[in-house]
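Fold this sequence, please.
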Amino acid sequence: MTFQGFSENNSAHVQIPDQFFRQLLPEVDDLDELKFTLYIFWRLNKMEGPIHYTSIHELVEDTLFAKSFGADPDSWPEFLEDCLQKAVRRGTLLQAGISDENAADKIICLNSPKGRALVDAIQRGEWRMTDHSYASVEDTGTAPNIFQLYEAHIGPLTPMIADALRDAEKTYPVGWVEDAFRIAVERNKRSWHYIEAILRNWQEGGRDDRKNQQDRRDTEEARRRYGEWEK
């Protein structure tokens, strides 16, 4: 079968770092590793939200991906693991094992600053796999912790940020933290500095939860403080 060419209205593109072509591609001598790596780039590019990762379980369930290799279904998981380890040894991808009361899995992400921060957070026990979206307290019946809020709205944890979040979790009421994140998202100010400024303002000036005008004043104060830090 001969490919008929790309359509003119195909606006979906995959971003691949220039370093891949200049530094990695000349070194990759295994076709399966190359196909696996390119597929991971494609899969991660299709994801939304600040944290882009996939898992071995998701890849095992991807029948179209398996078909592209012509792999035997019985040996497909082992084949994937072999391709992954080749890319990990080369330094293209990162992996981190996760588990819960139901099953164990393995996270796969790019060897990038965000990917390294994600793996570090997993290894420190400060991250668990989610559906990449933040569910409100009303939706789940359980209040998300401060680490989940940060990852859902800002990005992967770093050791420095994790320490700051631990301090904030001990200092401020849970409801304040959730509301501060909500306000930052509504104002499109997705920064821990901005959220922390709101919390500090509430702590220093008091907060009357019955008055919406107070929240507006607090966000204006946070915006002023955030602007000072950004200079």
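The chain has two domains: 18-123, 137-230. The longest helix spans residues 212-230.
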